[in-house]
Amino acid sequence: MDNYLLYTLFKFLHIAGAMAWIGGGVTLFALSMFAMGRKDEAGMLEVLKHVGVLATRWFVPASLITLVCGLVMAFVGNLWSEAWVVLGLVGFAATFVTGHFGLRPFAEKIFRRASSGDISGAVAEGRGMLQVSKFDYTMLFLIVADMVLKPQWNDFTVLAGFSTVLVAAVITFLGPLLWAERTPSAAQ
User: Fold this and answer.
1) Which whole-number Å values give the CA distances from 80 to 84, 85, 172, 177, 179, in the listed order?
2) For 5-49, what is each residue's pLDDT tens digit?
3) How far apart are CA 32 and CA 110, in angstroms?
4) Model confidence pLDDT, tens digit, residues 124-165
5) Which string of b and e fits 125-153 if b means at least 16 CB within 10 Å?
6) In the chain, what is the greatest distance between 2 CA atoms, to the nearest angstrom?
7) Which of 152, 139, 155 is nearest to 86 (CA)?
8) 3-state secondary structure of 154
9) Residue 88, C-beta contacts closer than 8 angstroms, at least 6 positions apart
10) CA-closest candidate to residue 28, choices 163, 125, 130
11) What is the 3-state secondary structure (H, E, C) of 164-175?
């Protein structure tokens, strides 16, 4: 198999994996937002259960397919010095960290609270998890933009735009969570 055909095959698999990963998450995110809008705690908890089930059965495999196929493409195409490849790998690492250290702890708290019958507490944790998810999906869409735009290291406008969106996402989505953790509650 020649390099072009091999690269094209892995490019297809890379894109298909990304579609499964991002599309599945966006669908669950939309379902949770609809449930929150209806103030439907049972519906919200049902969506959160699906997130927990799909995490290891769908999202991790889809993200690994995306990563492995991207690595094969970078190897076959000798793309390791390309800015967009490096930024894509950094973005993947960032979403892995966000998932492992941000989303996973929320999911565990939700499971514990729901198991103990504290549905309102589980839903409240779910709202926090949605804030982290909003940040994570902002990063994922930045990675998609990176793959489409393929910026080089001297594309300052594109890189500044990416940075601006990322900083805005941190402030908008993670800021309230970080601020709430540092602010003493009224109950104390």
Assistant:
1) 9, 7, 33, 36, 38
2) 999 999 999 999 999 999 999 999 899 889 888 988 888 888 888
3) 14
4) 888 888 899 999 999 999 999 999 999 999 999 999 999 999
5) bbebbbbbbebbbbbbebbebbbeebbee
6) 67
7) 152
8) coil
9) 70, 143, 146, 147
10) 130
11) HHHHHHHHHHHH
Mean pLDDT, all residues of the chain: 90
| 126 vs 91: CA distance, rounded Å | 24
- C-alpha distances (whole Å) from 145 to each of 10, 103, 151 are 19, 23, 9
CA distance 124 to 92: 28
| Helix, strand or coil, per DSSP, at residue 155 | coil
Map tokens 């989505």 to a residue.
173
Full-prediction pTM beyond 0.70?
yes
